[in-house]
Amino acid sequence: MNSISNQRFEGKVCVITGGTCGIGLALAERVISEGASVVVCSVGKDIKEQVENLRNKRVNKTAQRVEGLFVDVTSKQDRQNLVNLVEKEFGRIDVLFVNAGIAFQMYGQLNMPESTFDQLFAVNVKGAFYTIKDCLELLKKGKNPNILVTSSYSVPMPNKSVGVYGMTKAAMSNMVVWLAQELEPDNIRVNGINPGMVNTNMTPVKLRNITQKIPRIISEPHNVASIAAMITSDDGSFINGESHVIESKVLENYKI
């Protein structure tokens, strides 16, 4: 039986959309700590700063590289810029973390402006699908390549306060299943994670504050990243076409 290594991503190239904050940043920090070279992209204004911070976290500053790029996943040109950068600097993708996403309108969904509805689907669904499509040839060149999609606990547990957001994430979880089937001949695994409440800027302050009262009621980004690292490393090589819930059952019994 193979022993678990703390350098499971040594020599691997990981691309992370939405990689400069929250879960995405935690993913970057985790795989870098295990030896990966990383390309992070987002629409944030602090990309250069975050890239420098991540470079300082490398365990092997000679072998590991960290690059960053502004990428709006709804933009065909931005996605092509990402593909061009990775092709030029690395020539392949071993792990693609499809993590970029947005969440709006955490109240009456039927009052949602049509433009907001369209934006949610453009980023969360179309952006995810075409990011994968555009990166496919680089994934085919990867070492044991795989894709991890960040979905949501609102898929198995729909909630009226985030109804349309949950619809977009349900589409992503559906994609995980059929895309795993389609890419099986290329030996590319596809999986998803469905985090519940995570202590990020996307989580309402009221919910983040209750973490001080009850331990493990809301996960931290690094908790999610640790599970994502297992799935996307060789330790998760048998996992394919699955979506994994990351949620504390304590939350279901806590009245917010």
Automatic annotation (TrEMBL):
Mention any Pfam family matching this sequence: adh_short
Which InterPro entries would you find in this protein's record? Answer: NAD(P)-bd_dom_sf (IPR036291), Sc_DH/Rdtase_CS (IPR020904), SDR_fam (IPR002347)
**What SUPFAM superfamilies does this protein's entry cite?**
NAD(P)-binding Rossmann-fold domains
The UniProt family comment states: Belongs to the short-chain dehydrogenases/reductases (SDR) family.
- This chain's protein is named Dehydrogenase reductase sdr family member 4
What gene is it encoded by?
Contig14931.g15915
